[in-house]
Amino acid sequence: MSQLIPSHVSPPAPGQLQLIAEDLYWLRMPLPFALDHINLYLIRDTGGWAIVDTGICSRTTKALWSQIQDQLDGPITRIFVTHMHPDHVGCAGFLTESLRVPMYMSQTEYFASRALFAGAQGAGNWQDVQYYQRAGLDADTVTKLTSDYGGFKQIVSSLPLSFQRLRAGQVLQINGTSWECILGEGHSPEHISLYCDERLVLIAGDQILPEITPNIGSYSTQPDSNPLAGYLTSLDNFAHCHPATLVLPSHRQPFVGIHTRIQELKAHHHAHLDTLRKVCQTPQTIVEILPHLFARELNEHGMFFAIAEAYAHVNYLLALGALTRHEERGVYFFSTLN
Ligand SMILES: [Zn+2]
User: Fold this and answer.
1) C or N: which end of the chain has fewer Cβ atoms within 10 Å?
2) 191 CA distance to ligand 1 centroid (A)?
């Protein structure tokens, strides 16, 4: 099976299909964030094309999907969603509804999307407020970060009432070729990447990205969670991928070199953990830790992810017994245990 060399392939413009391997198209949808695009992929299926991830639900994305469908030599047959984040699941409901095709997703990601879409349903937000107060944020920032609950629903279409469940290790047949579902944890709870050993292609989702590291966060829904342990451990689920595998990530450029990239991702987090062990020789709050993890200035959107990422790193060290946590006037302090 011949592969195109990814460094020679330029990213497709919005609405354009770019052949990236035989019977496999790469397309991009715009995002209104610092990360301004998501990569989506189309796999030739029996009788048409299976799509992997969908873009956020916006008028622009919907119009681009219509342009894409006009260029295909067959209909969209089914929709695979790697995980619940809006840039991946956003248009899945819209496409499922308008095309009447099945949507495939892991169980946790499906139900988490439905729950996020439904919103607070009258529940109070005191736990959310407490999560940010414990991080050491000032009252104004806490108010800003806890006052908007409409975010998910604004960029995600209604989720379909039925789905096809994807499970870790499951093997799917797509146009007579086997694709394995590989479980990723940490970035989202039950992320699925699709690996084709026969064609040496991995549709990685957000689990393995080039140049940037996927966000690993302990969010206010589960503030004491340890997603970093899950992330680092589940990277080993990719150990059997062939070294020549073409990795098709959800952001930036396709690449070859999966195992080098996995080592870099692990080293990145271990370097952050080592830094925190040193910095916490003097007790630190989450807010005080941020500059040691993020070189850049953080806006409100960035702060939401950065706080969660900092919690994830201290929670990892707490679980290891390398840090302790104590609370003073409602704020957490983390100290290295010698
Ligand atoms: Zn994601």
Assistant:
1) C
2) 9
User: How many Cα atoms occupy the beta-carbon half-sphere of 99 within 13 Å?
Assistant: 23
Q: For residue 229, give its domain range.
A: 6-123+151-268
Kindly state the average pLDDT of the residues 208-233.
Answer: 97
State in Å: Cα 298 to ligand 1 middle. 19
Q: Tell me, in angstroms, the distance from the centre of ligand 1 to residue 188's CA.
A: 7
Q: Residues with Cβ within 5 Å of ion ligand 1? A: 85, 206
**What element of type H or E holds 155?**
helix 151-155
| Residue-level pLDDT at 185 | 98
Q: Is the pLDDT of residue 1 over 50?
A: no
| Rounded distance from Cα 249 to ligand 1 centre (Å) | 11
Give residue 34's pLDDT: 79
Ligand 1 centroid–CA 224 distance in Å is 20
Contacts of 54 (CB under 8 A, 6+ apart): 29, 40, 61, 65, 79, 81, 88, 89, 90, 91, 92, 94, 95
d(CA 312, CA 303): 14
From ligand 1's centre to the CA of 86, what distance in Å?
Answer: 8
**Ligand 1 centre from 336 Cα, in Å?**
31
Could you tell me the distance, in angstroms and rounded to a whole number, from the CA of residue 214 to the centre of ligand 1? 7
Residue 19 domain-assigned (yes or no): yes
**DSSP-assigned beta bridge partners for residue 179:** 172
- Please tell me the distance between residue 187's alpha carbon and the centre of ligand 1 in angstroms: 6
Sign of the Cα pseudo-torsion (23, 12, 9, 262, in order): negative
> Is the pLDDT assigned to residue 111 strictly greater than 80?
yes
Q: How far, in Å, is the centroid of ligand 1 from the Cα of 338?
A: 36
Q: At 33, phi and psi to the nearest 5? A: -120, 180
Tally the domains of the chain: 1
Whether 265 shows a pLDDT value over 90: the answer reads yes
Question: Hey, which residues does 51 pair with through a beta bridge?
Answer: 42, 79
CATH of residue 262: 3.60.15.10
Q: Is position 323 within any domain? A: no
For residue 174, report the distance from its CA to the centre of ligand 1, in Å. Answer: 24
Q: In the chain, pLDDT over 90 holds for what percent of residues?
A: 90
Instruction: Answer yes or no: is 57 within a domain.
Output: yes
